[in-house]
Write a structure and sequence with these properties.
- By secondary structure, this protein is mostly beta strands.
- Helix content is about 5%, strand content about 40%.
- The chain has one domain.
- The protein has a six-stranded antiparallel β-sheet with strand order 3-4-9-8-11-12, with no helix packed on it. It has a four-stranded mixed β-sheet with strand order 2-17-14-5, with no helix packed on it.
Length: about 260
């Protein structure tokens, strides 16, 4: 039996000609590389007997995991939470969870970040591992006791590149998958937006690969996960700056992150 996360999957992008000239200038340029550092809570307590009921976010031997006491950062209205294959399903009756990834020779480590942006209880699991390990498994009992469903989870990896940190695709499944040729980026708005546009810049060549293409119209409510399909022909194994512009009656907002995709 499989369980799929209830999210909004955006359709294919519309022609670039539908964008006005004034809109093309509104997303601006990518921020400095240090702005791409992953938003990971680094206050892991370092011991297992933290105050409280034992479920708070703390060190658990090979990971930091537990209930967190914050939601999405207030410093951005567009929060990037996941990067993975376009279609991902997983068994929900297993007692352990496995995250797997493809190796990238230029990075020695990968940081995994698993969050629950849509659940009533805030959950987070972080760990940093050797890139060549290619998989990590951990028990589900904390998630189960906190009432976290598999469909609540958003998963991504982070690796260090020459431009800073970049999101790196990972797979939440019971077995490691072959390299996917298509990926989706998970985005959570912290206020209402009615239009979303995407820009992608080659970080090494400073060349715009995608220039503010519309990726959807509708009502993107605060806290919902919006899955954005990425173009299949993006360069692999080098950092890309990715920006999303959100249109709203209360004002526009722009969010940037770096991504890096493995070689097909």
């Amino acid at each position: 039996m499989t369980h799929r996360r209830a999210t909004r999957q955006l359709s294919h992008v519309r022609p670039l000609a539908m964008i006005s000239a004034s809109l093309l200038l509104s997303i601006g340029d990518p921020p400095r590389a240090d702005a791409a550092e992953p938003l990971i809570q680094r206050q892991c307590l370092g011991h297992e007997d933290a105050p409280g009921d034992g479920y708070d976010y703390q060190f658990r031997g090979d990971r930091c995991e537990g209930r967190c006491h914050y939601r999405l950062a207030n410093t951005t209205d567009l929060h990037f939470v996941s990067l993975g294959p376009a279609i991902d399903s997983y068994e929900q009756n297993r007692r352990t969870l496995t995250v797997s990834w493809e190796p990238f020779a230029a990075s020695s480590d990968i940081t995994l970040s698993i969050t629950s942006p849509t659940s009533r209880t805030c959950y987070q699991m972080d760990t940093t591992l050797p890139m060549q390990r290619m998989a990590f498994r951990w028990p589900r009992y904390i998630m189960t006791d906190l009432g976290i469903e598999l469909g609540d989870l958003a998963v991504t990896g982070y690796i260090r590149t020459s431009t800073g940190f970049a999101m790196y695709p990972v797979h939440l499944d019971s077995t490691r998958r072959a390299i996917s040729r298509s990926y989706t980026l998970g985005l959570v708005p912290t206020r209402l937006f009615t239009e979303l546009y995407i820009t992608i810049v080659d970080a090494s060549q400073q060349r715009r690969l995608v220039e503010q293409q519309p990726i959807g119209r509708g009502f993107y409510a605060p806290g919902m996960v919006v899955l954005i399909p990425l173009p299949a022909n993006l360069p692999r194994e080098r950092a890309l700056h990715l920006g999303v512009l959100g249109r709203s009656p209360s004002g526009d907002a722009v969010g940037w992150t770096d991504i890096l995709l493995p070689s097909p």
